[in-house]
Design goal:
It is built from 19 helices and 15 strands. By secondary structure, it is α/β, with parallel strands linked by helices.
């Protein structure tokens, strides 16, 4: 719901701030006072095209801000969340026009493209009349409105699920069929790759172990020689390192008898002698265990070379070869059983196709019933809205060969505004005023299921008067009990039915002209309706008549 609108330096508006509430609000004023500026301002905040000529004379920029409460508009709230622009249940749209350069747009304080404003605006507000935000002109909106009117959302969702499943199975079948066309060649290829990789998979899994053994065998001679030399130094004779350290330990033990403080150090030397002896024994065992095996070295060298060659061939690392081998095996198994799978998928596709047609057929029949009912209701409303003899029809054409997530139907709103006219699409067949009244009749008929929370009717009273005008006013008031309605009108019969009333007037001061909009209190409403009834001269009788008209 629209809660606030502020305008600055737009056309002949210097500064304006308006608060809006739920229900029906009427905007009235003399011709040329600037009522259309309010519609233009809202249009700008919702992504309409802008030009520098809309900026007030003498100013370099203009600004429009509109604020919406989203508690009654979950689709807009979902859109904001999907685009990471949400701000609890509030939505602030801002548009800035500058004389030099392009206009700028903001959603909840964050810069946004004009297209995003239009997309979001279509979920927030509809302007009925000769203006841009006319969702009823769009085929998708007409289909959604019919479905909502008939309460068909469960059937629509069932069709969408059946269509999604059908598409997924169809894609899987196409993939399998494509693979089957080259099945023989692919199986030969896979057999060759598997045969080539299989003997080396265990080696690839033991790569670190093989590389360590290769390094050891490649340097076995040096390892044997130098470990032998170190062994000789440690435990090789009477003057080896372990023996010398042991003698030093015994000498220090003798000195410890003279000074016990040396006892701990003597123990350290004794321990070192033991460790040196153990290290020597270990090195001797290591040297004796080394095996100069050129044949084994060559075998490992060949295996590592083959592993790296295969890794380069498949453009992967050596440790990834087992995974690649497994993928080849799985693909071969799939292709081996592809004939079975292909037949099973074809049977499944047939079943799913039948399920989709049954769900879509049930939806089509329900839509056809709802279309007749809605056609009758709107046609009856047209007779009371100054379009006697006019007809409205919801055409629901089913194409048995069509398939979409929305079903097999093309839904179109057709109208003949006058007797004898041929039914034609809603967007092509009515004047601005007729279109507004037809839209009003549709909105009233579907008021319980409308998706857009705020509706603006721009001069719905064109070409009507008297009793018809009062009917239009009552319909708008009735619609305002479920949706927020803003109505620009010249007729007192319409304005009198509003829950809230705004007066638009033009004021000239010091050669400057401004449009101002004022929210009227109860007495102000009486005076404004009296002005609309009697012109500039307002008599006591006119005022009394105005009071009588108010509900």
């Amino acid at each position: 719901m629209l809660t606030h609108l502020s305008i600055r330096d737009l056309v002949i508006v210097r500064e304006l701030a308006l608060e809006f509430r739920a229900g029906m609000s009427a905007l009235t004023g003399e011709t040329g006072a600037g009522k259309s500026i309010l519609i233009d301002a809202l249009g700008l905040s919702l992504g309409d095209k802008a030009n520098a000529g809309m900026i007030r004379d003498g100013c370099e920029r203009a600004e429009v801000c509109s604020e919406f409460d989203l508690s009654d508009c979950p689709r807009a709230a979902d859109w904001l969340r999907a685009h990471d622009l949400d701000d609890e249940d509030q939505c602030l749209l801002r548009r800035v026009l500058v004389r030099e350069g392009r206009s700028r747009a903001y959603i909840n304080g964050r810069p946004a493209p004009q297209s995003a404003l239009r997309e979001l605006g279509a979920l927030l507000l509809d302007i009925h009349g000769q203006h841009a935000h006319q969702s009823l002109m769009r085929a998708a909106a007409q289909r959604r409105l019919l479905d909502a009117y008939a309460g068909l959302q469960p059937q629509v969702e069932a069709v969408a699920r059946a269509f999604q499943t059908l598409q997924e199975t169809r894609r899987a079948l196409e993939t399998l069929q494509e693979a089957a066309r080259d099945r023989g060649n692919r199986l030969d290829y896979l057999d060759f790759q598997i045969e080539e990789l299989e003997p080396l998979i265990d080696s690839a899994a033991r790569l670190a172990e093989l590389e360590a053994e290769h390094g050891r065998l490649a340097h076995a001679e040096r390892l044997q020689q130098e470990s032998g030399e170190i062994t000789s130094l440690l435990i090789g004779g009477e003057d080896d390192l372990s023996t010398r350290v042991a003698r030093l330990a015994r000498r220090l033990e003798g000195l410890a008898e003279l000074d016990p403080a040396l006892g701990e150090l003597a123990g350290l030397l004794d321990s070192s002698a033991i460790q040196l002896d153990e290290a020597g024994q270990g090195l001797r065992d290591y040297r004796d265990g080394l095996d100069l095996d050129p044949q084994r070295l060559q075998q490992i060298d060949d295996r590592l070379g083959r592993l790296y060659e295969l890794a380069r061939k498949h453009r992967i690392e050596v440790h990834e070869l087992p995974d690649q081998y497994q993928r080849f095996v799985e693909e071969r198994d799939t292709l081996t059983h592809s004939e079975q799978d292909l037949a099973a998928l074809q049977d499944e596709l047939t079943r799913q196709h039948q399920a989709y047609r049954e769900a879509a057929g049930a939806l089509s029949r329900a839509r056809a019933r709802a279309a007749k009912k809605l056609s009758k209701t709107v046609t009856e409303s047209m007779q009371t809205l100054g379009m006697q003899g006019g007809r409205f029809e919801v055409a629901c054409e089913t194409d048995p060969e069509a398939e979409s997530r929305h079903g097999q139907d093309q839904v179109r709103f057709l109208v003949a505004a006058n007797p004898g006219q041929k039914l034609s699409p809603l967007s092509d067949s009515a004047s601005g005023g007729e279109l507004s009244r037809i839209s009003l009749a549709i909105q009233v008929a579907t008021s319980d299921c409308g998706e857009v929370p705020t509706l603006i009717f721009d001069e719905v009273d064109v070409g009507i008067g008297g009793a018809v005008a009062e009917i239009v006013g009552r319909l708008l008031r009735r619609l305002g009990e479920k949706r927020q309605v803003l109505c620009v009108t010249h007729l007192p019969q319409v304005a009198a039915q509003a829950h809230h009333h705004f007066q638009v007037r033009k004021q000239t001061e010091r050669k400057a002209t401004e449009t101002r909009i004022q929210h009227l209190d109860p007495e102000g409403r009486v005076e404004e309706i009296a002005r609309m009834l009697g012109g500039l001269e307002i008599t006591p009788q006119t005022l009394a008549h105005a009071r009588e008209m108010l509900p």
